[in-house]
Amino acid sequence: MITSYILDFGLIEIYEDYIKVTINEGVTVSPEHNDVLLEMVEKHYKNKAFLYLTHRINSYAVNPTIYLETAKIENLIGFAVVSDNPIQEKQTKLEKAFFSKELKRFDDIESALQWKTELLEKYHGTFY
Hints:
The chain is of the alpha/beta class. It has one domain (3-74, 83-101, 108-122). It contains 4 helices and 8 strands, in the order ββββαββαβαβα. A 6-stranded mixed beta sheet has the order 1-2-3-5-7-8, sandwiched between helices. The model has no long low-confidence stretch (mean pLDDT 93).
């Protein structure tokens, strides 16, 4: 890990080629949270491909329209949802309808990181 940020809505961890976000219990993720993501991208991933990994260990709500803006981040190669909760499978399908890039749910972080590696190979050289 390169660095981390503890914010009022959750924990953001910055890695070489992915950002891992763990949202706090009871939060409703809204477009304002996207502004924080944009700041992180500008600071840590400028002109570099990266994956967004959300580790859903807490119960919280997501306004799915947030994905319309998130998908506009040019160097974002994909969005991984990590949760072993069966409800998240349905939630992820709903969210995917609003997200024009690759979005996939995984039961564990290791599987999500393997997918990240595959995506980075697919998009190699696109953002450098």
